[in-house]
Structures are given as structure tokens and as C-alpha cells.
Design brief:
The protein is mostly beta strands and about 140 residues long. It has one domain: Sandwich (Tick-borne Encephalitis virus Glycoprotein, domain 1), CATH 2.60.98. It is built from one helix and ten strands. The strands form three sheets. A four-stranded antiparallel beta sheet has the order 3-10-9-8, with no helix packed on it. β6 and β7 form a beta hairpin.
Length: about 140
């Protein structure tokens, strides 16, 4: 259900309509915020990016003094049309923070909420912001 809601929202946002069998391409780059279990679909290639959740979050909490910024790791599935889905983990500070699929570049650009001293983040409350761009192919 969440996949459908995000796909419909993105289609409405992008003007993606089916008029006489013609699907208007989703304009890129586009950025979307996904909760665990949500997907976005880019048309007409049917690129599907699904956010499964956060596998690690060592980001320095707000108000703390840390030696380094830490890192958040988010697990995704990327699938092009009917090809087999590929699982990947993208990071906020470490590499890789992006992946490629076909002519698309998928990048993790944010992970919310940000940690706070003395509080635990409910895994279901994470939101991953991803940017999808078409690569220029000569």
C-alpha cells in the first residue's frame, strides 16, 4: 500500500499520466523521503527504489562533542523494470553513499531523525531522503 501511495504521489507531482498508452517520463533529478517499507518508482523505465530501514546509526548526537561525525547506514533494494532486485547499503558519511542502476544514479542525501543525547530512535521512525538522477549517456 505504501509503495502505491508514494508512486501515485510521485506521478501526480511529476505529471505522470497514461494518455492513450503514453506514459509521461518522471522528470529527474527528483528527491523523495521514504519511510521503512516505502518505495518510489521512476517512469517509464520502472526503476523502483525501496527503503528497508537503518542497519546502523553511529552519527554524533546533537549536543555531543565527538571525534568524528559518525555514520548512518540505510538498506535499500533497487530494481529496474522486471530485472532482479539488487540490495545495497548506502551511508551518510562513509562510502558508498550512492549506487547506479541502468541510466540512474541513486544517492542517500539525508537520514532523519538526527540522534539526540539520551534518546533512542525507534527504527520505524527513520526517514531516508534519496535523490534519483538520470546519467547523461553519450
Amino acid at each position: 500500500m505504501r509503495t502505491t501511495q508514494v508512486a501515485v504521489f510521485l506521478c501526480l507531482l511529476a505529471g505522470c499520466t497514461d494518455q492513450g498508452g503514453v506514459v509521461t517520463p518522471t522528470p529527474t533529478p527528483l528527491q523523495a523521503a521514504l519511510a521503512p517499507g516505502q518505495s518510489l518508482i521512476v517512469y517509464p523505465e520502472r526503476l523502483t527504489v525501496t527503503f528497508f530501514g537503518v542497519t546502523a546509526d553511529s552519527r554524533c548526537p546533537m549536543g555531543a562533542e565527538c571525534i568524528w561525525e559518525g555514520d548512518g547506514a540505510a538498506r535499500f533494494s533497487v530494481q529496474m523494470d522486471r530485472a532482479a532486485a539488487t540490495a545495497c547499503t548506502l551511508h551518510t558519511a562513509l562510502q558508498p553513499n550512492f549506487t547506479e542502476s541502468g541510466v540512474f544514479f541513486i544517492q542517500l542525501v539525508g537520514l532523519d531523525p538526527y540522534p539526540r543525547i539520551g534518546s533512542r530512535i525507534d527504527p520505524a521512525s527513520y526517514v531516508a531522503s534519496v535523490r534519483v538522477s538520470r546519467m547523461i549517456v553519450d
